[in-house]
Amino acid sequence: LTKNILISVFISMVSLFVIALLISFSLGKNQNFSFSKKILFFSLAFANPFIISSYVKLGRLPEFLGFLGILLIFSVMLKYLEKPLDKKFYITFLPSYVLLMLSHPQMTLLGHLLILGFLIIKNNKDRIKIILASIVGLILSSFWLINYLKYNLLGGNLFTLDPIALQFLIFTKESLLRNISITLVSLFLIFSFIIYYKQEKNRKILYFFSPIMILGLLVLFRLIPFIKFFNKVAPNTYSIFLLL
């Protein structure tokens, strides 16, 4: 439409931030946040150094789109933590899941940890519904997914590329601040959750976030480079996800 890639990318970037703000306010409304807490949430999730570095400086907009998919799924699941699934769940979950599948492989992988936590806390009837909805999402995204798997699995790219997460084990001058940052984010996540759980003692919340807590520990103790698929996710991407 613009016939100018710079203008198009700029419009896309601004649009994604506006959408992120709207989703943040919607999530805040469901969680009964005050206006200032909604702004604080948006600032922590979308105005942090990791976001600026990856999405503004490097222009990783497909990953940004995937992060919005995760935020949408996260918002839906928080809403249905304590209530049974209804038609509104499918109306919101299914498009969010398809968006996640079509956006960025690294975010797709991490987003499924939220879905795993949600499956853990639900009864068998709801688990079947979630799995069926996910299968429908896979079918709707299959026009892209089949070619992606064909190229990466048959071509060997998914296994032969150098693991991005090896950056976790390199403490050069260039990577030192990045490694300190991801360590602080992981510690912040784990300790803040421990404090929260001691106050609330909500086992459902504990089970829901257990896959994320395990991920935080794996990142903290630098075990991620040795785990297949997860060693393809960049450190900055982990920082963004865990900070959320």
What is the topological layout?
Blueprint: H1 5-30, H2 35-46, H3 49-57, H4 61-79, H5 87-103, H6 105-121, H7 124-140, H8 142-154, H9 157-160, H10 176-200, H11 203-220, H12 235-243
Helix pairs in contact: 1-2, 1-4, 3-12, 4-5, 4-6, 5-6, 5-7, 6-11, 10-11, 10-12
- Tell me the span between the first and last alpha carbons: 34 Å
Q: Describe the biggest sheet? A: none
Please report the total strand number as a whole number. Answer: 0
Structural class: mainly alpha
Portion of residues in beta strands equals: under 5%
Tally of separate helices: 12
Computed over alpha carbons, the radius of gyration is: 18 Å
Round the mean pLDDT to the nearest integer and report it.
91
Fraction of residues in helix: over 70%
Shape: globular
Order of helices and strands: HHHHHHHHHHHH
List unreliable stretches of 5+ residues.
none
In short:
The protein is mainly α. It contains twelve helices and no strands. It is globular.
Structural write-up:
By secondary structure, the chain is mostly helical. Helices cover 76% and strands 0% of the residues. Helix 4 packs parallel to helix 6 and helix 5 crosses helix 7. The protein is globular and about 45 Å long.
